Amino acid sequence: MQTSKIWYYSELIKISNRECDLLAKIVTQSDIAALMYSSGTTGMSKGVILTHKNFIANSLMMMADQDRYGDPKNVFFCFLPMFHIYGLSVITDHLLAASEREHGGFDGQVVSGAVPLGRDVMEECAKVIPHADIFQGYGMTEACGIISLGNPKEEPRLSSSTGTLVSGVESQIASTDTLQPLPPNQLGEIWLRGPNINAR
Predict the structure, then answer these.
(1) What homologous superfamily is domain 9-75+107-193 in, according to CATH?
(2) Is residue 53 over pLDDT 80?
(3) What is the pTM of this model?
């Protein structure tokens, strides 16, 4: 039985015995990194061009609170599609099993996105994982994922809010008729600006 081994990209290139016909290219932050498709909630699904800069900004925004609070660096690596039950269940199972072995219980964070997480679901989750911070965020494909995120250190426990804007994102609510900014508590369209927002 073969033991598992991590193969680095450089090792795969060495053992492939094939030379690449592609020319070497210097990649800049403004180069396209991914073409993602939106969910189509307002009509047909649209292709969203995201750059390397969008992904770099998104990563920094997600980790900003760690620096702010002096938290130790957390690393989370996932290569499975988290939007699919397979990815979600495998990652969740492994995280919970590892935490149970190492700490005697899960005391980390449970973060929800993609759909609103109701307070009733949060309360049920808290019964099962009582020491975990349970919160949610709001995002969209055009924002490379993140727009706002709950903050369990500053918000009431089990707040059903999607939190405040992440560092670097600006927002205003505008009238869909006049395209002018609206005062608080008015229905309108969300306008966003930030380094994580797609430019095309």
Answers:
(1) ANL, N-terminal domain (3.40.50.12780)
(2) yes
(3) 0.70
